[in-house]
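Hi support team,

I've been running sequence recovery on a batch of backbones for a student project. Most finish fine, but this one hangs at about 90% for roughly twenty minutes before it completes. I'm not sure whether the input is malformed or the queue is just slow. I've pasted the structure tokens below so you can try to reproduce it. Let me know if you need the job ID as well.

Thanks,
M.K.
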């Protein structure tokens, strides 16, 4: 949050399932709506996902099934991906036979612009904010994870574990 009084940038952690829910969670905690509207610039929800080990990475044998199950063709078109490269790690010495090495962020971004600030902050706020984010072609946590899986950076299984 950016403090309206001091002009300093303030980061905070609020435990929610997605970016729009952080707004309503802060209201639940007693922060006045006018203060949120004045102070919030953006909200980022994030999860850490394990990255596939680059040394033992292979093409996912169940690619066709996963593409159909998670409708990845549609998501690839939406985000202008030319190909879907689902991969998995087989396990090697470098990854301690886990198939994963390192971590990466899976994120959801909500810009607190005038449209978001003007939405009623009742029970329908989160769904309206999600719909607006989609119209702005922004990804949900799950979509960002699936996008990164389609790039061959992590697995669908890992995405479902951290963002599902």
């Amino acid at each position: 949050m950016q403090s309206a009084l001091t002009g300093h940038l303030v980061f905070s952690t609020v435990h929610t399932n997605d970016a729009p829910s952080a707004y309503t969670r802060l209201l639940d905690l007693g922060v006045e709506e006018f203060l949120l509207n004045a102070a919030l610039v953006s909200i980022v929800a994030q999860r850490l996902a394990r990255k596939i080990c680059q040394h033992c990475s292979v093409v996912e044998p169940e690619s066709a099934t996963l593409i159909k199950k998670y409708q990845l063709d549609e998501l690839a078109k939406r985000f202008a991906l030319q190909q879907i490269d689902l991969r998995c790690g087989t396990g090697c010495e470098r990854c301690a036979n886990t198939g994963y090495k390192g971590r990466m962020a899976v994120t959801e971004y909500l810009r607190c612009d005038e449209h978001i600030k003007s939405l009623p902050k009742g029970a329908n706020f989160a769904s309206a904010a999600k719909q607006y984010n989609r119209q702005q072609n922004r990804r949900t946590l799950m979509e960002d994870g699936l996008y990164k899986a389609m790039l061959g950076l992590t697995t669908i299984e890992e995405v479902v574990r951290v963002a599902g």
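--
Follow-up from support: It reproduced on our side and the slowdown came from queue contention, not your input. The radius of gyration is 18 Å. No action needed from you.
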